[in-house]
Amino acid sequence: MEPALPSEIEIKLDLSNEALESLLGSDLLGEPDDALRQSSTYFETDDRRLSQKGFSLRIRSTGASYVQTVKASGPAKSLFVRSEWETPIEGNEPVLDHTSPLISEFGPELELEAAFTVFIERRVWNIDLNRSRLEVVIDRGDVVSGNRRSPVQEIEVELKDGDLKDLFIFIRKIEAIAPFRFGIQSKSERASRFWTGSNSCSKQSTSFSNETSRRLPPFERSPRPPFGNSVSTKISFSCDEIPKAFIRRG
């Protein structure tokens, strides 16, 4: 008996500007169901203690609303029953209280400062395919830290409900219009590397070959040679297990 799939399965795609414009100009997506602007400011200590211990604090602004999110990753994640704490707040200043473990982990004197902000324009499409429901999100914007700025853009395709095969069918429809690479780093991870000036990355890149496809579990395998032969499609992945990079689970 196969284990139940998680309720949300997401694939992240990296496209060039040209490829993204080709996709947006095609008939595949049409007009978005929703469009909004967001800014996400990430906070850190001056000695980067949060990231070193596997924590992050972000305040996301959408319109007049502000939501603070604290996340634990790596070894810190295993210390808690949950790994994410989300709290509505009044403004763009961190709130350190009982709603997250930061005070217990770092003490009440913890001092945070804004490290960088990600400004994006987000467009959302709700896609019905066969008996499945997908959500496509395209983010485009910039990472800003002081007087430095770097562009950022990505596509996320998420299976909200239905058959995993339909998710891959839709990914192939995208590939037929615009070449892409599978993305493994989040916007915040890329922004953090930009902020620190780090070029190092613990994730590797490998060609997605037919042999790789044959090694995937049946429910994660592409039913045909993956995504055509006209472009060099690559996956960035951790050394642990290829499917973990191929599918991002919620």
Structural class assignment: alpha+beta
Assembly context of the chains: single chain
Classify the helix fraction into a percent range.
Answer: 10-25%
Low-confidence stretches: 1-7, 199-250
The largest sheet, given as strand count, sense and whether it forms a barrel, is: 10 strands, antiparallel
Give the radius of gyration: 19 Å
* Straight-line N-to-C gap: 22 Å
Outline, from the CA principal axes?
Answer: elongated
Number of separate helices: 7
Indicate the proportion of strand residues.
35-45%
According to DSSP, the number of beta strands is 12
Topology as a string of helices (H) and strands (E): EHEHEEEHEEEHEHEHEHE
**How would you state the average pLDDT, rounded?**
75
Keywords:
250 residues, alpha+beta, ten-stranded antiparallel β-sheet, disordered N terminus, disordered C terminus
